């Protein structure tokens, strides 16, 4: 199904990264986070590093990925010097390239993904070069926040698959499956419909298990009177979707029905608050106020949302007090919840893309309690 997806604008990304290096006070950046490598080059292998400096790009990988790297970088129209070698050869190639920088130049490493051990190894490996190795944060992740149309199309396609999968299996909830069984049905349906994979380990949290927001599915059978929190997504061409729906099996009690209505109102208020220029804190507040007014402020156990893209959780975080201004093209979730040990949990989550005037909701399964 990938052939139906519009192309992504990969080739401009290195240049956008390069334009941030001066502000980050580095002359070159060694990109080692594989998700960031993928974003910048289209390379999907499990071993590859990218050195970006003012003059160009060096991509190093090992013999398993030589052919793939050449093809994928060409497909993405990314111009780079590609070196295919073992570990020592890759180091030599990096050292040779770094040796062309002016003496005393600063090389950035990605502090959030380089281990302490790897950092020590890089210091040793680059000892012969006159440069200073410094930590950087989120340089590529920042670029990844705003999605191009091709990226949004992939997330939307993943969301549509997840919607269709839930539609296929939802009636089985009435047959009393265990959480594990229902989760497997959902996962299998997503794969059969064409998802490359599931987006993350599907959450099916029934009855008392629902009061733990990240419960792992277990052997408990789903039964009448349960609230069932179902949090899941699909993966399409590296891009994730993320949606939660909560089902009330049978009539439930008055508290459960009220929990549902409050979370639904809260979630709708959050989605209505999303627009370019609104802060992440304002979106969180819109959700939190509705739940607080119902007297359940302490039962909303997590933040309101997060960015979604090549990672299931990425920037920006939509959390209490957040001051980041949302921008057109960002993709975020809105997912308030109320969790009460005696009644279970309710969470409703949509993935939305920010527009100038509001947002477009990518996850479209209806939000009634009887899905
Ligand atoms: Zn989710
Ligand atoms: Zn989420």
Describe this structure in a few short sentences.
The chain has 371 residues and is of the alpha+beta class. The chain contains 10 helices and 19 strands. Helix content is 33%, strand content 22%.
Structure commentary:
It is a single chain. The protein has 371 residues and is α+β, with helices and mostly antiparallel strands. It has two domains: 131 residues, Creatinase/prolidase N-terminal domain (Creatine Amidinohydrolase, Chain A, domain 1, 3-Layer(aba) Sandwich), CATH 3.40.350.10; 213 residues, Creatine Amidinohydrolase, CATH 3.90.230. Helix content is 33%, strand content 22%. It has ten helices and 19 strands. The strands form six sheets. The protein has a six-stranded mixed β-sheet with strand order 4-3-2-1-5-6, with helices on both faces. A three-stranded antiparallel β-sheet has the order 7-10-11. Strands 8-9-12 form a three-stranded antiparallel β-sheet, with helices on both faces. Strand 2 and strand 3 form a beta hairpin. The longest helix has 21 residues. 43% of the residues are buried. Bound molecules: zinc ion (2 copies).
Question: Which characteristics define this entry?
Answer:
Creatine Amidinohydrolase, 19 strands, binds zinc ion, 3-stranded antiparallel sheet, alpha+beta, 371 residues, Creatine Amidinohydrolase, Chain A, domain 1
Question: What does the secondary structure layout of this molecule look like, with pairings?
Answer:
Blueprint: H1 13-18, E1 28-31, H2 34-41, E2 49-53, E3 57-61, H3 66-75, E4 81-84, H4 87-98, E5 105-110, H5 116-125, E6 131-136, H6 139-144, H7 149-169, H8 179-192, E7 197-198, E8 203-206, E9 227-232, E10 234-236, E11 239-240, E12 243-248, H9 254-273, H10 280-293, E13 305-307, E14 314-318, E15 331-334, E16 337-340, E17 344-347, E18 350-354, E19 359-361
Helix pairs in contact: 7-8, 9-10
């Amino acid at each position: 199904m990938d052939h139906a997806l519009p192309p992504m604008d990969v080739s401009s990304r290195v240049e956008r990264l390069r334009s941030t290096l001066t502000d980050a006070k580095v002359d070159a950046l060694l990109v080692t986070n594989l998700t960031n490598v993928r974003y910048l080059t289209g390379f999907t292998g499990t071993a590859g590093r990218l050195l970006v400096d003012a003059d160009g790009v060096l991509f190093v990988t090992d013999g398993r990925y030589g052919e793939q790297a050449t093809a994928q970088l060409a497909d993405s129209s990314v111009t780079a010097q590609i070196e295919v070698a073992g570990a020592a050869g890759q180091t030599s190639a990096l050292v040779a390239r770094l040796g062309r920088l002016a003496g005393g130049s600063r090389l950035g490493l990605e502090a959030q993904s380089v281990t302490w051990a790897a950092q020590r190894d890089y210091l040793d490996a680059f000892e012969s070069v006159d440069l200073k190795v410094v930590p950087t944060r989120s340089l590529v992740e920042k670029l990844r926040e705003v999605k191009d149309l091709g990226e949004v199309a992939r997330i939307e396609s993943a969301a549509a698959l997840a919607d269709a999968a839930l539609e296929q299996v939802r009636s089985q909830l009435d047959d009393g499956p265990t959480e594990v069984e229902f989760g497997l049905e959902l996962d299998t349906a997503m794969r059969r419909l064409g998802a490359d994979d599931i987006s993350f380990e599907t959450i099916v949290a029934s009855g008392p298990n629902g009061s733990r927001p990240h419960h792992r599915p277990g052997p408990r059978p789903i039964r009448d009177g349960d609230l069932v929190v179902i949090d899941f997504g699909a993966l399409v061409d590296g891009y994730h979707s993320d949606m939660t729906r909560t089902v009330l099996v049978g009539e439930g009690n008055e508290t459960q029905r009220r929990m549902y209505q409050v979370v639904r109102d809260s979630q709708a208020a959050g989605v209505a608050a999303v627009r370019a220029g609104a802060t992440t804190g304002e979106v969180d507040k819109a959700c939190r106020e509705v739940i607080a007014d119902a007297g359940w402020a302490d039962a909303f156990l997590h933040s309101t949302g997060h960015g979604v893209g090549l990672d299931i959780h990425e920037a920006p975080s939509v959390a209490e007090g957040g001051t980041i201004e949302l921008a057109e093209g960002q993709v975020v979730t809105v997912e308030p919840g109320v969790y009460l040990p005696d009644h279970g949990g309710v969470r409703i989550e949509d993935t939305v893309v920010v527009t100038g005037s509001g947002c477009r909701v990518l996850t479209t399964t209806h939000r009634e309690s009887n899905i």
